[in-house]
Amino acid sequence: MIDTSRLPLTRDLVLVGGGHAHALVLRKWGMKPLPGARLTVINPGPTAPYSGMLPGFAAGHYAREELDIDLVRLARFAGARVVLAAAENIDTAARLVHVPGRPPIAYDVASIDIGITSAMPDLPGFAEHGIPAKPLGRFAGRWAAFREGDGPAHVAVIGGGVAGVELILAMAYALRSRGRLAQATLIDSGKALRAIGGKASQSLRRALVEQGVRLEENARIERIEDSYIVLQDGREILSDFTTGAAGARPYGWLADSGLDVNDGFIRVSETLQSSDPQVFAAGDCAHMDFAPRPKAGVYAVRQAPVLYHNLRALMTGDPLRKYRPQKDYLKLISMGSKEALGERFGTTLTGSLMWSWKNRIDQAFMEKFRDLPAMEAPPLPAEHTLDMEAALGDKPMCGGCGAKVGRDALFGTLAGLGTANRDDITPLPGDDAALLTIGGVKQVISTDHLRSFTNDPVAMTRIAAVHALGDIWAMGAEPQAATANLILPRMSSALQARTLQEIMGAATEVMQAAGAAIIGGHTSLGDELTIGFTVTGLCPRPAITLAGAKPGDALILTKPLGSGVLMAAEMAGEAEGDWVAAALEQMSQPQGAAARILKDAHAMTDVTGFGFLGHLLGICEASRAGAEVFTGKIPLMQGAAELADRGIRSSLFPANQAALPELKTSGWQDLLFDPQTAGGLLAAVAADQAGELLDQLRVAGYPAALVGKVTEGSGAVTLSAAPRPTGAGHH
């Protein structure tokens, strides 16, 4: 039997946007992936809001997080890489998707589901003083802050279609229930609610009156100001929060894509293919030439099974299916309070029962993404060695530093090697890098590689490069040269070339910014992506080692802890997408500027695989000193404490904890043993300089903290009792 997980990758499928159709495709893909296909999803942020629940959120019936589909978690379930950025162009000739800040992403088959915007670039003052209702994420954040404010509130919605009426009713209800509504206005350049039946229109107009909404029809807007709207007839309408829901506007870059468009929307055939058969489109950004329909989420949801089949079929050579949209659909329209209007085929019903029905449909849709089915690991062969289960452990092996060998095993082996009998090598047992002397010049050299914990080679390369440079920065050296050591998963030669271009582009960017040149490397194929670098640095002054800490020194840490737990949780589908996105960003932060600020440190190391306490122990043992750790001052990554309290640990945690068995930790304090990837610098500095150094680090963008002090007593590490940290990783 062939192990499908080891089959080579041969085709790139790229989903541009995290719209409803693509979210459903990702879910179906996770339950039945296509061997040989590498799946990528590109989206501006880690979540994709569900439009059906926006009015309920605006009214206060749903919490902000209830709106969101977690695309990072969904991508992990689907085995996809997720790229958190907004696509800005698709080159159909070269088959490349252009994303700012990274190399272009190549595709064999692509699909676009980026939704629409309700921005009004032609309306004077809207860009400065208005907030479009779509994209939903930005609107939801701004509205939540405004809704929870104080004092009388004036709000206005531009656009008298169903979406605009739903929104102004929800906003008016939310503000009235808080005793803040001064005025709510709905403005339309023509007649409001002209797209729905007369009975439904009458019911919604009555709801506007009941909620105290002022309706301005046939009213043209001259300009938007900060706290009011000027109409062309000279009247002014007070509004502290102005939003737009007037029609669907396509994103501008679609018109420049070379694909056939209709008013800026991508024309698609019955198979959902664009004018380029390798590019599909779905949801609101697509125009169904064969059966034009108004923009509605129901079509995206119904398109998903056909899109999923056709994306696979194009890569397998199977026949494509046709999508046939229904002629009419049940419209469920929120009315502010927990009441809704239902309309289909001219029949209209209103009331709380309609709201319950709508809520049940919306919750059922979101439940598909909250409760992803657990895909069981294949069972062990019936016949295996006695200690196989113990070696496998009870969870998958972590990536990054979580996959490394434990401290005791490593040091036990290194201790038996002895030192080279050479005058040009300065022995520094346990230190971050080797110190060489060449022609009177001091040079440090180190090597490090990481087992990938993210499917995005660019993100992984940036983190691996920062991680490898950490050893150079920790010794106060200036990066000089690097060689890359890469293991790629088995893939076709075309995918090898694409992947190498992405990796080397990202590596060159990080190394050049650090002042180092990439001078070569080595590549091979294996089971999984592994990225490493051998790095050298020059020491213009005496190297900073582990051995110089003095009792009384202050201990400064430049980055928050928690990457090991967060990546372990992400592998298990337990971490929230915005936590993972923030962690990847923090791991990608170079430490060169921090190292220059800390150039006069007495001792310094970078916090990586052995965890904070393991690396602190290294300083204490080399310096023949002890340390007191202010546990309440330790900066933590967003979500790390919550995950640790839930019992999630990196696979290297037990080995790290064994290095200091006398320290009994539990819950969030276990993060002190958490293996870090591309972690911060831990420096022992003169106590009278600590305050100024912290200020400089924070100005330079580091969430640095004073986390302890050096004490007497060789190797003695103590923890001070303190409350749980608030988390420096939250910004």
Question: Could you give a short description of this structure?
Answer:
With about 725 residues, the chain is of the alpha/beta class.
The level of helicity is 25-40%
Number of domains: 4
Radius of gyration: 29 Å
General shape = globular
* Parts with pLDDT < 50 across at least 5 consecutive residues: none
Question: Your description of this structure?
Answer:
With 731 residues, the protein is an alpha/beta fold. It has four domains: 4-116 and 250-328, FAD/NAD(P)-binding domain; 117-247 and 330-372, FAD/NAD(P)-binding domain; 432-544, 60s Ribosomal Protein L30, Chain: A, CATH 3.30.1330.10; 545-731, PurM-like C-terminal domain (Phosphoribosyl-aminoimidazole Synthetase, Chain A, domain 2, Alpha-Beta Complex). Helices cover 31% and strands 24% of the residues. It contains 20 helices and 36 strands. The strands form nine sheets. Strands 25-26-27-30-28-29 form a six-stranded mixed beta sheet, covered by helices on one side. Strands 32-34-31-35-33-36 form a six-stranded mixed beta sheet, sandwiched between helices. Helix 6 links the parallel strand 11 and strand 12. Helix 1 packs parallel to helix 3. The longest helix is centred in the C-terminal third of the chain and has 22 residues, at 493-514. The protein is globular and about 95 Å long. The model has no long low-confidence stretch (mean pLDDT 90).
